[in-house]
From TrEMBL:
This is Prenyltransferase. The lineage of its organism: Eukaryota, Fungi, Dikarya, Ascomycota, Pezizomycotina. The keyword Cytoplasm does not apply. It is found in: Membrane. One of its GO terms (molecular function) is transferase activity, transferring alkyl or aryl (other than methyl) groups. PANTHER family: 4-HYDROXYBENZOATE POLYPRENYLTRANSFERASE, MITOCHONDRIAL, PRENYLTRANSFERASES. The keyword Signal does not apply. It is a multi-pass membrane protein. InterPro entries: Prenyltransferase, UbiA_prenyltransferase, UbiA_sf. GO terms for cellular component: plasma membrane.
Length: 341
C-alpha cells in the first residue's frame, strides 16, 4: 500500500481489537462470510472474556461469597457465552459500518464484505439474527442483572465504529468497552447492581491495560503515519512513547493493587498475579524498540498471553480462598446418581 494520506488514514482507522483477520480466500460464500464477519474463526472474543472473569473473582472476594464447583462452572459458561455472542454481533456491525473504507484499503479488500462473500444486506440480516441471540443468551445465562450490566458494553460497541471517524483515540472507547465487561462478571455472582461501584478500580485497571497494549500495536504503523501526516496517539507521543507506556503501566499496577486490597486477596494474587504482571510491564516498556516495527506487535501478542495468565491466576486465587468444596458429595451424587460418603 502506498503512502497516500487518505489511504493510510483509512488503514489507521481499521486498527484495534475489533479489526478483522483477513481470510485466506475470497469470492461468493455466504456461510463463510457470516462466520468470518462474526470473528468465529479467531480467538478475539477471549480478550473480552478476561475482564469478565476478573470481575467474577473480584465480586466473590469482595462480597465474601463462597461458590461450589457447579455454581462456578455455570457462571463461567454464562459469561463466556454472553461475551462470545456479543462479540460476534458487534464485529458484524463494525464491518458493516467500515465496508466503504475496507474497499479502499489493500489489506482489507479480502474481508467478507469487500471480497464479495456476501452483500451488505445479507450482513444486516446476520446482524439482526445475532441481536436477539445476544439478548436471549445473556438473559438466560446471567439473568436480569447480566442484561443491565452488559448494556453499557452494547451501547459503546454500537458507537465505536463512528468514534473511529471523529477522534484519533478510539482506543479509549475500546478500553471502556472491554473494561466494562468487569461488571457483568461482578453481577453474575451477587445479582446486586448497588455494589458495582466497588468494581471501578478493576474497570480502570482493565481500561488502562487495553489502551496500553493497543499503543504497542499502533507503534508498528508510526513511521508510515509520520510520512503521511496522519494524527495518532503513537505519532503524538513520538520518541516519548516509553514514558506514557510506563505511566499506563503504573496505572494498571496501582488500580490492581487497590483492587487486591479491597478484596483481601491471598498471596496467590500478590505474588503470582500482580508480581508477574508488574515484571511484565517493566519488560514490555524496556524492550520496545522504536527502530524495529515488529517490536510493538510482539509485545502486543505478549500482552494477550499475559491477560490469559492473569485470568488463570484469578480463578486459582478464588479456588484457594473462596471456592467451597463442602458439598462435593452432593455434587457427585447429582452427577453420577450414586451415594458419595
Amino acid at each position: 500500500m502506498g503512502t497516500n494520506t487518505n489511504t493510510v488514514t483509512l488503514r489507521k482507522q481499521q486498527t484495534g481489537i475489533f479489526r478483522a483477520t483477513p481470510p485466506q480466500d475470497s469470492g461468493r460464500n455466504l456461510r463463510k462470510g457470516v462466520w468470518q464477519l462474526a470473528r468465529l474463526h479467531t480467538k478475539e472474543a477471549w480478550l473480552c472474556w478476561y475482564p469478565a472473569v476478573w470481575g467474577l473473582c473480584l465480586s466473590a472476594g469482595t462480597q465474601d461469597i463462597r461458590l461450589n464447583i457447579l455454581q462456578m462452572a455455570k457462571i463461567l459458561f454464562g459469561i463466556w457465552s454472553s461475551v462470545t455472542v456479543t462479540h460476534c454481533a458487534f464485529c458484524t456491525w463494525d464491518d458493516i459500518c467500515d465496508v466503504d473504507f475496507d474497499k479502499q484499503v489493500e489489506r482489507c479488500k479480502v474481508r467478507p464484505l469487500p471480497a464479495g462473500m456476501l452483500t451488505v444486506g445479507e450482513a444486516y440480516v446476520a446482524l439482526m439474527a445475532w441481536l436477539p441471540v445476544v439478548f436471549g443468551v445473556t438473559y438466560l445465562t446471567l439473568g436480569e442483572a447480566g442484561v443491565w450490566t452488559f448494556t453499557p458494553v452494547w451501547v459503546l460497541s454500537t458507537i465505536y465504529p463512528f468514534m473511529k471517524r471523529v477522534t484519533s483515540f478510539p482506543q479509549i472507547v475500546l478500553g471502556a468497552i472491554i473494561g466494562a465487561a468487569v461488571f457483568p462478571g461482578w453481577a453474575s455472582v451477587t445479582g446486586d447492581l448497588t455494589t458495582l461501584s466497588q468494581g471501578l478500580p478493576l474497570f480502570f485497571a482493565t481500561a488502562s491495560w487495553v489502551v496500553y497494549f493497543d499503543l504497542f500495536y499502533a507503534e508498528q504503523d508510526r513511521p508510515d503515519d509520520i510520512k503521511a501526516g496522519v494524527k495518532s496517539l503513537a505519532v503524538l507521543l513520538g520518541d516519548h512513547v516509553h514514558y506514557f507506556l510506563a505511566f499506563l503501566g503504573l496505572l494498571q499496577i496501582a488500580f490492581f493493587t487497590l483492587t487486591g486490597l479491597r478484596a483481601q486477596m491471598s498471596p496467590v494474587f500478590w505474588i503470582l498475579g500482580l508480581g508477574v504482571w508488574a515484571a511484565n510491564v517493566i519488560w514490555h516498556v524496556a524492550s520496545l524498540d522504536l527502530n524495529n516495527r515488529r517490536s510493538g506487535g510482539k509485545i502486543f501478542k505478549a500482552n494477550i498471553m499475559l491477560g490469559l495468565y492473569m485470568t488463570v491466576i484469578s480463578v486459582l486465587e478464588l479456588a484457594v480462598s473462596r471456592l467451597s468444596i463442602s458439598d462435593l458429595g452432593s455434587i457427585g451424587q447429582s452427577l453420577i446418581g450414586m451415594q458419595v460418603s
